[in-house]
Design goal:
Helix content: 40-55%
Mean pLDDT: 89
Radius of gyration: 25 Å
CATH architecture of the largest domain: 3-Layer(aba) Sandwich
Number of helices: 17
Strand order of the largest sheet: 1-12-11-10-13-14
CATH class of the largest domain: Alpha Beta
Number of domains: 3
CATH superfamily of the largest domain: Nitrogenase molybdenum iron protein domain
CATH topology of the largest domain: Rossmann fold
Largest sheet: 6 strands, parallel
Low-confidence stretches: 453-464
Length: 464
């Protein structure tokens, strides 16, 4: 954590200009997509679903399985319980998913319906028809929160709805749980799994988008998610000896899992950087009782060399960062750790306590208009694809990071975590700085170009 506490600023604007954040149900859908054979179901209008579907599809360049209860004008007035029941039964009949994950939207939440009661009644009344399918509910109105909150609520809903309770579970000493944040990529989860397995541990990652959103050509068409954490593995997460949560917004799911299973947890605010990667590796060594594997030590040595090679390009640089709270914190710590200054930090929401630990004088809770206004004079912009217009207008290079990224390929395969991810980020930033470095002209190097002819050292004309 930073020593100083950042000042959190909430601009009083009548409207968002070039919005920075995406909706809670979108974040919940992303998390649910990390569970195998799952169908996310938006309880609301078709428009709410289409918005999330388009953004996720553009980011991952994949076909995304999301359905809607398609509430109409009548349902908006009289209630959407019938639409919800019909949608659940149709999904069970047509796709037979292991999990139907309901995400509420603004329309349904504004009516104040008893969604929990509706789902319990549906399960009790149509139990035989729904046998073999779990149903979970996440309250995610569009008008509140952002991707991180939606993701967190979805993971919490899965834990409280699927994980078995009580001490009856037989503890497996080599099993651990990983609760990754929404800011981690497919490549990050693969790197985390590989590192955990290098210590002889077996991780259950929830959610695991590395299996379902990794961009592969499937052998057969699947109407639901193809890959991700199996529901059977989620049920027995209480057998693990420890849980590792990554990102402040994963504290609530970790607390829910501990309350349900008594499994202790360790929370890492970020896994980007040398020191935090060291702490992660040290924890794995402690849990496994094994020494650090040679290949992990080699990855650390590569990061050290990358930092030595790249730190010249960070020193004194002014950086502007915009994104979800945990992503802003992770990137700010990364840049300041290598000698750069975070001159502008803009967060999509202001509810996360991690914002006070961002190493910047202030953090603005706002939009990309606030970001552009405050980023003038910086050396590099760090945000998602919607920041490209600000980059063009300001003439400042843009480092794409976060969600969505739709004007670059392979966003899901970019490393940002642990030794490998931090190494790759060092190289990426250094290359951006070098590519946009304007070499100084001979005139600019002339130490006397801004002085008059009478400057000391200039040849003087004799007076006659």
């Amino acid at each position: 954590m930073a020593d100083a506490v950042s000042k959190i600023i909430h601009p009083q604007k009548a409207a968002a200009v070039n919005p920075l954040k995406s909706s809670q149900p979108l974040g919940a859908a992303l998390a649910f997509l990390g569970v195998n054979n799952t169908m996310p179901l938006f309880h609301g209008t078709q428009g709410c679903t289409s918005f999330a579907l388009v953004l996720i599809g553009r980011h991952y360049k994949e076909v995304i399985p999301i359905q809607t209860t398609a509430m109409d004008e009548v349902a908006a007035i009289l209630g959407g319980a019938d639409h919800l029941e019909e949608a659940i039964l149709n999904l069970k009949k047509r796709t037979n998913p292991a999990l139907i994950a309901v995400c509420t939207t603004a329309l349904a939440e504004t009516r104040g319906e008893d969604f929990d009661g509706d789902i319990k009644l549906i399960a009790a009344r149509r139990g035989e028809d729904l046998a073999g399918t779990e149903i979970v509910l996440a309250h995610t109105p569009d008008f509140d929160g952002s991707i991180e909150q939606g993701w967190s609520k979805a993971v919490t809903a899965i834990i409280t709805g699927v994980v078995r309770t009580g001490p009856a579970e037989r503890v497996a000493p080599n099993r651990i749980n990983i609760l990754p944040g929404s800011h981690l990529t497919v490549a990050d989860l693969e790197a985390i799994r590989d590192t955990v397995e290098a210590f002889g541990l077996e991780p259950t990652i929830l959610p695991d988008i590395s299996g379902s959103l990794d961009g592969k050509v499937a052998e057969r068409w699947m109407p639901t998610t193809d890959g991700g954490t199996p529901v059977e593995d989620i049920r027995v997460m209480g057998r693990a000896v420890h849980t590792i949560a990554i990102g402040e917004h994963m504290r609530a799911p970790a607390d829910a899992l501990r309350a349900r299973t008594n499994v202790p947890y360790t929370l890492f605010p970020t896994l980007t950087g040398l020191a935090v990667s060291d702490r992660f590796v040290a924890l794995l060594a402690e849990l496994s009782g094994r020494p650090v594997p040679a290949r992990v030590r080699r990855a650390r040595a590569q990061l050290e060399d990358a930092m030595l090679d790249g730190h010249f390009h960070f020193g004194g640089k002014r950086v502007a960062i915009a994104g979800e709270p945990d992503l802003v914190y992770a990137m700010a710590r990364f840049f300041t750790g290598l000698g750069a200054e975070v001159s502008c930090a803009v967060s999509s929401t202001g509810s996360s306590p991690i914002l006070q630990a961002v190493p910047a004088a202030e953090v603005v809770v706002g939009d990309l208009d606030d970001f552009e206004t405050r980023a003038e004079g910086c050396d590099i912009l760090v945000t998602h694809s919607h920041g490209r217009q600000a980059s063009e207008r300001l003439g400042i290079p843009l480092m794409h990071i976060g969600f969505p990224i739709f004007d670059r390929l392979g966003a899901q395969h970019r490393h940002t975590a642990l030794y490998e991810g931090t190494r790759d980020l060092v190289f990426e930033v250094a290359n951006i700085v070098q590519a946009h470095h304007a070499p100084r002209t001979p005139a600019e190097l002339d130490p006397f170009r801004d002085h008059g002819d009478t400057h000391v050292g200039r040849p003087q004309t004799a007076a006659h």
